[in-house]
Specification:
The complex is a heterodimer of chains A (317) and B (490). Chain A has 317 residues and is mostly beta strands. Chain A contains 1 helix and 26 strands. In chain A, strands 5-4-7-8 form a 4-stranded antiparallel beta sheet, with no helix packed on it. The chains are: A mainly beta (317), B alpha/beta (490). The interface between A and B is medium-sized, with 26 and 29 residues.
Chain lengths: 317, 490
């Protein structure tokens, strides 16, 4: 027992020594101090934290290559400006200057290294006029100008298939191509035409809804958005803001199928614009349209204002 | 009287106040000066790791000693003597299912039975006590020199419903019995055991040996190593790990002789017990306070001698996980209620004129420090450590320590994996043989289960102790709340 107590005594005092010896070094390191063994003084330092995407880049501090690779922390740097260069095979190198402050960390943690030969893959087949990506469904929709048809593929350009044709008379180039939220329709528009194509129609149905075109020769179409119900379109031209109905109607067969849109029918002009809207934002989650327009104030001066138009709270027809 | 009460209340408040004060200050610092909080946190982390390594070294030494001595034939090494062993089992609701194996273990030990007196001390308020007594008497009544069943009456003035009150009642009955048999108190070693305590075969030989060889046998308590092997193979992981850790803590304490205090089942001279006025009848932590009572009575000339032999007890658990946590929490809180020893000891020190001041300061500080550390360590490591990072804001995150804190802490705690590994290995070595009907796969489970230790630390690390200290500080005194003992799950 006596010898055990002796060993215990040695262990105890050893622990005390380790604690009191170790704690100054741990704290000084943590707080950003460096112990100078020549002067026996602690010097204030800073550190740089580097992270790259992808990791594994070589780090040059000035002209000196450091042994660490990213992600890495360069500790115990005296305050000042440092040139940092990050290099990785087959990636563009990245260089910057960083300011190191005493007892602080300079973070270089959002560095993306871009490949010198990017991995590019052609997805389309044929000449495309426009496309859109449905990330949730994992599909890409292409408008093929040569064949006047819409194609669909997965996000890797595989499973390529034609899903619909565009009617004759639609003028190229289109401005945009948009899929409705129920993924039943595709909207294509140019400066004077809106085209709605109905998808997922079974061939054996007795009623087939062909794509149709709405023409707006006297107006210039700026933007068209799908309403969140996928049954209406929000149209912004240089003259007004309108809502179009795109709801399937019952047809004589009794089967619920999309009914044709007719120009001028089921359209409500909500706002007459004084000028072409400079900016438009449609918040689809709340069906709110933000837009700008000019208006003459009581003082006779023309002001540009931003307006908020709620399209969700009121019945639209 | 009023002054005494004020002094008592002040001393009762001190541990809780210190613990809560430390926690409050650190949390406050995390918001107003996160760098200071981080520095304190780092110092504590480093201190805790070194402490863990140091204590694990002591555990290894204690384990080596236990391994070496547990199968020694102590009785053959004992000189001729006239010592009697008086064994008291203070029980409340426990019946023959719990007491039977404990008495059987005494029956099976190698000490002469004609030198043993067994008392099963029942509480009169328990309606089943008489029937239980009869059942046990019929089985064990004629084996020992004496076998008594005592029934502690309820509601004696000045008493609380504590184990100490029951044990004291039984010890007084024993004194009458011994006097009638012409046995001197000085020739009797008393062992006060929990109902589920099963002694090893060599226990009384080992105890007798140490008693005889001790230069001052009446100025010492004798503390065996408590293990919870009775149902260790059946208990769920959570409860098993908690109790293994408790055993290990006790083994570690056995190496720190100057701080060693009696715990749970232990033994002492009957003469000493009589001289110091038996166990306190109004305190919950009778097992440790009896040591302090003797320490004060003998002016500091009292110690605890470790016995490197085991007494095995039950792991308290239930068939429901949440109930097991609750049972374990209550048990740990009762142990932590040992903080009531602090006002008891300091009150004693204040009236004592003989114990050297430095010794008073050391013992008082050790007692206070151990309870305060118990109440805060897990809270600092688990909850307060990350606070500066969470609430330090952009400024703290730009500082070197804000960046380094989690990295250094992670690195430091990697060292504890080595100590953890030592605990896993030692836990395997104290296991009893695998019972029939228990799959060998249980061996793998019992190694893998150590990964839930952080979860145990989170629940039972500090909160029971902080709870107990808060109750004591608020004057909400704890009644003795016996842990359900059963060989079957409750």
């Amino acid at each position: 027992m006596l010898s055990e107590q002796r060993i215990r005594g040695v262990l105890f005092y050893l622990s005390v020594v380790i604690f009191f010896t170790g704690i100054p070094f741990i704290l000084s390191f943590a707080l950003g101090y460096k112990f100078n063994s020549h002067t026996f003084k602690f010097t204030k330092t800073g550190l740089i934290s580097i992270k790259t995407q992808p990791p594994g880049a070589r780090i040059y501090l000035g002209s000196k290559l450091l042994p660490e690779k990213t992600p890495a922390t360069i500790n115990e740097l005296l305050p000042g400006v440092y040139d940092i260069r990050l290099e990785l095979e087959r990636y563009y190198s990245y260089g910057t200057q960083v300011q190191v402050e005493p007892r602080k960390v300079t973070r270089l943690e959002k560095v993306i290294l871009f490949p010198t030969r990017p991995n590019i893959k052609q997805l389309n087949q044929g000449k495309i006029a426009s496309f859109c990506v449905d990330k949730e469904k994992g599909s890409i929709y292409y408008l093929n100008q040569d064949e006047n048809a819409i194609y669909e593929s997965n996000l890797d350009g595989e499973e390529f298939k034609e899903i619909s044709n565009l009617p004759m008379g639609f003028n190229y180039p289109p401005k945009e191509l948009k899929v409705s939220f129920d993924r039943e329709k595709i909207l294509i528009f140019n400066n004077h035409q809106i085209c709605v194509v109905y998808l997922n129609q079974k061939n054996n149905l007795p009623y087939y809804q062909p794509p149709l075109i709405l023409n707006y020769p006297a107006q210039e179409i700026e933007h068209v958005f799908w309403h969140s119900d996928s049954c209406h379109l929000v149209l912004i031209t240089d003259k007004n803001i309108a809502v179009l109905e795109a709801t399937p109607k019952s047809n004589p067969t009794g089967i619920d199928l999309p009914a044709p849109l007719k120009e001028g029918s089921h359209q409500i002009n909500l706002v007459n614009l004084n000028s072409k809207a400079l900016g438009v934002f449609y918040e689809v989650n709340k069906d709110v349209l933000y837009f700008s327009d000019y208006e003459r104030g009581a003082d006779g001066i023309i002001y540009e204002n931003i307006y908020k138009l709620e399209l969700n709270s009121k019945p639209l027809y | 009287m009023k002054k005494n009460n004020l002094k008592k209340r002040t001393l009762e408040i001190i541990p809780g106040l210190i613990s809560w004060g430390i926690i409050f200050i650190l949390v406050l610092l995390a918001f107003i000066n996160p760098v200071s909080c981080a520095v304190i946190s780092l110092i504590f982390d480093f201190y805790w790791i070194i402490r863990t390594v140091y204590l694990t070294s002591l555990l290894v030494m204690a384990h080596r000693r236990l391994y070496r001595e547990r199968n020694r034939n102590w009785l053959s090494e004992c000189p001729d003597n006239n010592l009697y062993h008086l064994i008291i089992f203070p029980v409340y609701k426990e019946g023959p299912d719990v007491l039977g194996p404990s008495l059987e273990a005494i029956k099976n030990c190698n000490y002469p039975k004609d030198k043993m007196i067994v008392i099963v001390a029942f509480e009169e308020r328990n309606p089943g006590a008489r029937d239980n007594a009869k059942a046990l008497e019929s089985e064990f009544g004629n084996i020992f020199y004496g076998y008594l069943s005592t029934f502690h009456p309820d509601g004696i003035a000045g008493e609380k419903r504590t184990k100490g009150a029951n044990a004291t009642w039984a010890a007084k009955q024993a004194k009458v019995f011994l006097a009638a048999g012409g046995i001197s108190d000085a020739d009797v070693i008393i062992s006060c055991f929990d109902a589920d305590t099963c002694v090893s075969k060599e226990y009384f030989g080992c105890l007798t040996y140490h008693f005889i060889k001790s230069p001052k046998p009446h100025r010492a308590s004798y503390q065996p190593m408590p293990v919870y092997n009775n149902n260790i193979w059946q208990a769920p992981s959570f409860a098993r790990l908690v109790e293994i850790s408790s055993s290990f803590c006790q083994m570690i304490e056995s190496m720190r002789l100057e701080k060693f205090v009696t715990f749970s089942s232990h033994s002492m001279s009957f003469k000493t017990l009589v001289d110091i006025g038996y166990w306190p009848v109004d305190m919950v932590s009778d097992d440790s306070v009896i040591y302090w009572k003797a320490f004060l009575f003998y002016k500091g000339d009292y110690r605890v001698i470790p016995l490197y032999t085991t007494v095995s007890m039950d792991i308290a658990y239930s068939n429901s996980f949440l109930k097991t946590i609750k049972i374990q929490y209550k048990q740990k809180r009762r142990w932590a209620w040992g903080v009531e020893n602090f006002p008891f000891l300091i009150s004693g020190f204040l009236t004592d004129r003989d114990i050297p001041l430095i010794r008073k300061i050391r013992r008082g500080f050790h007692l206070l420090e151990s309870h305060v550390t118990w109440a805060i360590w897990a809270i600092i490591l688990v909850f307060i450590g990350p606070l500066p990072i969470i609430f330090g804001g952009a400024f703290f995150n730009q500082t070197a320590i804000g960046y380094n804190l989690s990295k250094i802490t992670g690195l430091l705690f990697n060292f504890t994996l080595f100590t953890g590994l030592a605990w896993v290995i030692l836990s395997r070595l104290i296991l009893p043989p695998r019972p029939k009907g228990v799959s060998w796969l249980k061996n793998i489970v019992m190694i893998m289960e150590w990964i839930i230790v952080p979860f145990i630390i989170l629940i039972l690390g500090s909160t029971p102790a902080l709870d107990a200290q808060t109750h004591l500080a608020l004057g909400k005194y704890m009644e003795f709340n016996p842990t359900p003992k059963s060989k079957k799950v409750v």
